[in-house]
Amino acid sequence: MKDTMNHPSSAIDYLYVDNLSWLRQLIYRRMGCNELAADLAQDTFLRLLRKPQEFDSQEGIRAWLSRVAQGLCVDHWRHQEVERTWLETLAAQPEDHALSAEQQAILVETIYELDSMLSRLPEKIMQTFLLSQLHGKTYREISSEMGISERTVKNYMAKAMSLCLRVQLELETSQ
Q1: How many CA atoms lie within 13 A of 119 on its CB side?
Q2: Does the pTM exceed 0.70?
Q3: Degrees to nearest 5, angle at CA 88 with 85 and 93
Q4: Which residues contact 112 (CB under 8 A, 6 or more apart)?
Q5: Phi, psi of 25 (to 5 degrees)
Q6: pLDDT (tens digit, 9 = 90+) per residue, 55-70?
Q7: 3-class DSSP state of 33
Q8: Which parts of the chain fold into alpha helices (H)?
Q9: pLDDT at position 38, please?
Q10: 25 with 69: CB under 8 angstroms?
Q11: DSSP label at 72?
Q12: How far apart are CA 20 and CA 45, in angstroms?
């Protein structure tokens, strides 16, 4: 398999033809929708095109495809949850606070981007970031609540902010 990876288009063609049906079936069993399975399978192969991998065996290929597809399924479920929560929040708002369809779309996209960014953070760093940015707590309050030093809170926040900047750069360069 390694030799075929030296010629990406032929390797990708081979991987795609040989594994697409299997991957779509795997995703369908998890998601229960043919159209969604097709979309997520395509997204899985797009990841492979963006970041080529070397594989030693068919099992290695399928393990990688399965792992990436599982991540995409989780992302899809998380987006559904964000959207459901957003719609419930919208329904609870008084009419005079209603957002236009365009404002709603922008806000939902921003929420998806934030969720994607936060899901990349280790749990304690994400918790620190949310306590600071969402709940407005001071570093001292976070330190006390989480049972860590203020210095650790500062380090966690620096890591979270660094990731925010990297994600922002990724988004800007992909557009």
Answers
A1: 15
A2: no
A3: 125
A4: 79, 82
A5: -65, -40
A6: 889 999 999 999 999 9
A7: coil
A8: 2-5, 8-31, 34-50, 58-92, 101-119, 123-133, 139-146, 150-174
A9: 95
A10: no
A11: H
A12: 9
- The 10 Å Cβ neighbour count of residue 117 is 19
Domains of the chain and CATH, by start = 2-79 (1.10.1740), 120-174 (1.10.10.10)
- Using the structure block, give the residue that is written with the tokens 């557009």: 175
CB 124 within 8 A of CB 131: no
CB 167 within 8 A of CB 116: yes
Ranking 9-18, 86-95, 127-136 by mean pLDDT, the lowest is: 86-95
pLDDT digits (tens, 9 = 90+) for 25-34: 999 999 999 9
Q: What is the pLDDT of residue 156?
A: 94
Q: Which residues touch 143 (CB under 8 Å, ≥6 apart)?
A: 149, 150, 152, 153
Mean pLDDT in residue range 26-45: 94
What is the CB neighbour count within 10 angstroms for residue 6?
9
Q: pLDDT for 79-117, tens place per residue?
A: 788 778 777 777 777 777 777 778 878 877 877 777 777
Contact 56, 1 (CB under 8 A): yes
